Amino acid sequence: MRHGISTHVFFPQRLTSALLDSLRDAGAEAIEVFAARHHFDYTDRAAVRDVATWFRSNDVAPTLHMPLFTAEDEAIWSRHTAPTINLISMQKSTRIASMDEVKRALEAAEQVPFTSCVLHPGLRDDEWDTRAIDDSMTAIEHLKAFAGPLGVKLLLENLTNDVATPAHLAEIVRVGHFSNVGFCLDLGHLQMTEVGEEAKAEGAKSLTEEAFEVFGDRLVELHLHDNHGQFSGKGDEHLWPGAGSVDWALVAKKVAAMKTQPVGMLEVAYDLGEASVVTVDRAKDAWALVRGVGR
């Protein structure tokens, strides 16, 4: 498994070459650049050029995460701001505006050699129905046509809504005949929807096992972070692996069995109080845990 770190760990800060240096020094072979104007302003050509120059000078592969906020919401952003960009909103105007914002971020690939872009299909309360399927396919087709010439592959990420379950994402890709669309398996989001211990005792299959099987060899990227599950009341904590209740031994087993190894992208919560050396040490521990040789 290739080691990656998302700039999400520095999300409240402006992305600089010094921050990218610290992720490289932590052993990152790939870096996911989180598209947010207060962090990585993809509409600022100078900011994009600086990031592009850094990646050209370092043997680190860049990937992109789609924006989660509109330009208006970026102005009042805080760590408690809920995402507002929705590619499958029931409002057509919102869908169009959301796709336009993602395209603005994708335009950065003209300078930064992004290989992939992670997409969020929907928001927390979106439901699985015919409309959601149609709107998902429309958004994917539209963005795929835009990203393809830039050399960027789209990756659909599982969320905690009913649309973006691994099984439903696979169904969207199958029905839409999207042969060049892959998947990003977010293990923290999966833990937020994992079946309880009572259900497992009754023979219910682990959602982690199902997800690896459903995504198969189209699984390109893993988002590695931890939480205490849907029944803890603590939400999507984005903890370092090992600090929550994710079954990392099972994850390590499933990753080891894959024919093509995915990028393991650490997507942990930002903590301005931590020095970069702490990030280095924690990243090494986290990757060891996912390899099955951790603490």
Number of helices: 11
Q: Given the helix and strand composition, which structural class is it? A: alpha/beta
**Low-pLDDT sequence parts:** none
Number of domains: 1
Just give the CATH class: Alpha Beta
The mean pLDDT is 89
CATH architecture: Alpha-Beta Barrel
CATH superfamily: Divalent-metal-dependent TIM barrel enzymes
Gross morphology is globular
Helix content: 25-40%
Strand order of the largest sheet: 1-2-3-4-5-6-7-8
Q: Can you summarize the main beta sheet?
A: 8 strands, parallel, barrel
Distance between the termini: 18 Å
Rg, Å, rounded = 18 Å
- At CATH level 3, the topology is TIM Barrel
Number of strands: 8
- Give the H and E element order: EHEHEHHEHEHEHHHEHEH
Strand content: 5-15%
